[in-house]
Amino acid sequence: MRITQAFTFEAAHRLPHVPETHRCRRLHGHSYRVELRLEGAVNPETGFVVDFFDVEHIFGPVLKQLDHYCLNDIPGLENPTAENISQWIWRKIKNDLPLLAAVTVYETPHCWAEYLGD
Ligand SMILES: Nc1nc2c(c(=O)[nH]1)N=C([C@H](O)[C@H](O)COP(=O)(O)OP(=O)(O)OP(=O)(O)O)CN2
Ligand SMILES: [Zn+2]
Fold this sequence. Notes:
Elements: E1 2-13, E2 28-39, H1 52-66, E3 69-70, H2 82-93, E4 100-108, E5 111-115
Parallel strand pairs: 1-3
Antiparallel strand pairs: 1-2, 2-4, 4-5
The structure holds the ligand Nc1nc2c(c(=O)[nH]1)N=C([C@H](O)[C@H](O)COP(=O)(O)OP(=O)(O)OP(=O)(O)O)CN2 and zinc ion (ZN).
Zinc ion binds next to β2.
EC number: 4.-.-.-
Enzyme class: lyase
Function: Catalyzes the conversion of 7,8-dihydroneopterin triphosphate (H2NTP) to 6-carboxy-5,6,7,8-tetrahydropterin (CPH4) and acetaldehyde.
């Protein structure tokens, strides 16, 4: 069974490794959407794979580190592409959410990166 929980945060960033002429080299912001997908068996007693409240409890502090910050200032996010943000989130929560199967980070409704682990 797969379950997915979505979160949103607002943040600024710039991409330091794109060419000078690339508009994303300049500081700008996004309304990010993060989807956490978990996969596993349904517990017959609870009817849950994992309680969404537990996911929220684990991811909440990480979300707080991202929301309304400049992502480039966060250790490990010096090059805050959607790809790097999804991997960074995975590393922060995978130990506490062993059933985590994918982290998807949307920069816009049309552009996203999905990390499935190594
Ligand atoms: N593979 C990636 N490519 C790009 C990334 C990324 O993280 N991974 N990021 C960017 C910039 O962050 C850029 O800001 C993307 O957003 P935006 O320019 O707003 O995207 P749109 O093209 O959808 O903007 P419109 O104004 O709607 O055209 C670039 N590339
Ligand atoms: Zn951007």
